[in-house]
């Protein structure tokens, strides 16, 4: 993928490329030459991410035979020719695992994010996270352009929003039924019932449903920790259970963002309003 990016908070254009090099060693040089060609054609600050299918240093691979020095040298020379520098990472070093039991487990840092110095000047606070993904043997490379900016983003906490993802839990109906049994005042029965529902749904959400994104991250971190240990049948079964949980919560997250999406608001979401508000 090759795209030119422009956003409201950064009026200057920059290039984003998602690169994949051949898994066959015989064709690896062909991939490096392609990256060089794409680099020469770029006149904008450049961020390049993807599966390079190669490590830069021996410590970036664990298990099996060491990488041939000439293969790592070809990778380093390609990045130098393209004026690309490794953005580094946080959390787990490895981004790929063959998911076989010990002593046949192999882990490596095959995925990374690289950029030109001009791009670094545009986003000096950019950082890279390796996020485990249950449905893939590769981790997700998450680029945060400005972590501090994300923390400062204003979010309205007072408005009540009924999340469509809540309906996936049978407890949601029970909470609403219990709240709706509230009698309320003689002239405000409907309003009081709605407010009681809001209050109890908020409490239930915090106590039981929780933060969807945090739950997914928590389960993925547990998977990552287990994958870094000696693989046994028990750990393998536990990983599969955690994957099922990740899949379940990812489905809830997709439903949440479908409801949030302005572009799908009338087409696929709530046809009256994107949120239930009072």
UniProtKB/TrEMBL annotation:
SUPFAM superfamilies assigned to the protein according to its UniProt record, in alphabetical order: DNase I-like
InterPro entries hit by this protein: Endo/exonu/phosph_ase_sf (IPR036691)
PANTHER family: BNAC02G09200D PROTEIN, DNASE I-LIKE SUPERFAMILY PROTEIN
Protein name: Uncharacterized protein
């Amino acid at each position: 993928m090759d795209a030119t990016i422009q956003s409201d908070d950064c009026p200057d254009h920059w290039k984003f490329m998602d690169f994949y090099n051949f898994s066959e060693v015989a064709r690896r040089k062909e991939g490096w030459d392609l990256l060089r060609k794409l680099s020469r054609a770029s006149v904008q600050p450049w961020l390049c991410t993807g599966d390079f299918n190669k490590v830069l240093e021996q410590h970036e691979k664990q298990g099996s035979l060491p990488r041939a020095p000439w293969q790592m040298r070809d990778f380093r020379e390609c990045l130098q020719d393209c004026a690309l520098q490794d953005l580094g990472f946080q959390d787990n070093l490895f981004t790929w695992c063959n998911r076989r039991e010990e002593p046949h487990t192999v882990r490596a840092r095959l995925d990374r994010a690289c950029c030109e110095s001009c791009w670094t000047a545009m986003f000096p606070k950019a950082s890279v996270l390796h996020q485990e993904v249950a449905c893939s043997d590769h981790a997700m490379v998450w680029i945060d352009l400005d972590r501090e900016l994300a923390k400062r983003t204003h979010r309205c906490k007072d408005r009540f929003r009924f999340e469509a993802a809540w309906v996936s839990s049978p407890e949601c109906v029970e909470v609403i039924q219990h709240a709706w049994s509230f009698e309320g005042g003689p002239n405000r029965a409907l309003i009081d019932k709605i407010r009681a529902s809001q209050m109890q749904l908020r409490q239930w959400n915090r106590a039981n449903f929780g933060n969807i994104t945090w739950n997914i991250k928590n389960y993925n971190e547990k998977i990552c920790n287990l994958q870094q240990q000696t693989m046994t049948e028990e750990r393998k079964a536990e990983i599969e259970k955690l994957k099922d949980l990740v899949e379940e919560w990812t489905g809830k997250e997709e439903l949440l963002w479908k409801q949030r999406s302005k572009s799908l608001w009338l087409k696929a979401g709530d046809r009256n309003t994107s949120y239930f508000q009072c």
